[in-house]
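Async update (no meeting this week)

Hi team, since we skipped the sync, here's where things stand on the single-chain job. The sequence we agreed to prioritize is pasted below, unchanged from the tracker. I ran it this morning and attached the output directly underneath so nobody has to dig for it. Comments welcome in thread, and please keep replies under the output.
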Amino acid sequence: MLHKENQISSIKIKQVSLLAIILVLAALICFNLALFIPSVLGAITIYVVCRKYNFYLQEERKWKPWASALALMFASLIIIILPIYFIADLLIEKLGNAQAYMQKFNVFIDKIHDFVYSKTNFDILSKENMTKLKDFAGKYSTSALSGTLNTLTVVMSMYFILYFMFEKPRLFERILASAAPLKRSNVSLIGEKMRKLIMANAIGIPVVALGQGIVALVGYFIFGAPSPILLFALTAAASMIPIVGAAIIYVPICIFMIAEGNTGAGLGLGAYCMIVVGLTDNVLRFTLLKKLEDIHPLNTVFGIIMGMKLFGFMGLVFGPILVSFTLLLIQVYRNEFSDDDTPELQLPDKDDELEEKIDLIV
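Output:
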C-alpha cells in the first residue's frame, strides 16, 4: 500500500510532460520571434488603454469594426506614439555621433570633478572611478540607442497586431480567458491588475515625465543652460527613474554652469529645478499616479534597467510592467495552489450561520 501511495500517478506524469512540451515550444517561439516581443507588448498596452473606447464605438455607436480599429489606431499614434518617438528621435539625433558625444561627456565630467575638487579639496571621483563612469555611460547609451533604432519596425508590426485585436475584441478576450489554465477569479484578478499597471505605466509615468521635462525646459531657456532641447529629452527620460529622477540631469548641469563661471545662472537653475520641477513631480505623482496604481519604486527601478537592456527606449514603459506582472503571477500562483485559505473556509460567516438556523427552524 505504501509503495502504491508513493508512486506518481499517470495523470501527473501526463500533466508534467504536457507542461514541459508547452514550455519548450513557447521558449522556441519567443527565442525566434524575440524581435516582435516589444510589438506584442505595445499592442497589448494600447489595447488596454483604448479598450473602453473600442467597445463604445462598436457596440454603442455601431461603427464597423474596421472603422473603429483604424480610428483608435490613428488616435493612439498621434497621442501616445508620436511624443515618445519625438523624444527618442531627438536623443538619436543629438547623441547619434557616439565619438563626438563621448568627447563632450568626458569634458563635462572632468569640468565638474575639477570644480568640486578645487572648492572642497574632496576627490569626488578618482581617476579609476571616472574611467569606469565614462565607460559605463558610453556602453549604456550606445546599447540603449541601438535598441531604439529598430523602433520603426516595432511600431509597424505592433499596429499590425493591434488591428486584429481591435477588430474582434470580444473574441480576443475570450480566447485569452479560455487559454489561461487558472480559476476564473484569478483570471479576473490578472485582468484587473494588469489594466491598472498598464494604465499607470503607459499613461501615468509618461505624463509625469513629459510634465517635468516641459517645466524643466522653461528653466533651461530662462537661465541659459547649454543644449536646452537635449536636456529636455534627457530630463523627461530621467524623471521616470524613482527617488533620484530628474536630479540626475539638472544637478550636474547646474554644477557645470557654475564651473563655467555662470554662478548666478547655475544657482538660479538649481533653485528653480528643486522647487518648481520637484513640485511638479510631487503634484503629478500624488494626483495622477495614485489614482491609477501605486507602483513600488523598486519595481520601476529594476524594470527600467531590465527594459532598457531588452527593448531600448521603449523599455522605460515595458520594463516595469514585466516586473510587476511577474510579481502578480507569484500572487496568482499562491491563490491557485496554496492551502493557506483552508482555515478560513472552516469558519462560517455570520450570515451563513443565520441561514442555517433559519433552515433548521423551517
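Quick observations from my side:
The chain has a mean pLDDT of 75.
Residues 181 and 250 are 49 Å apart (CA to CA).
Reply here if anything looks off.
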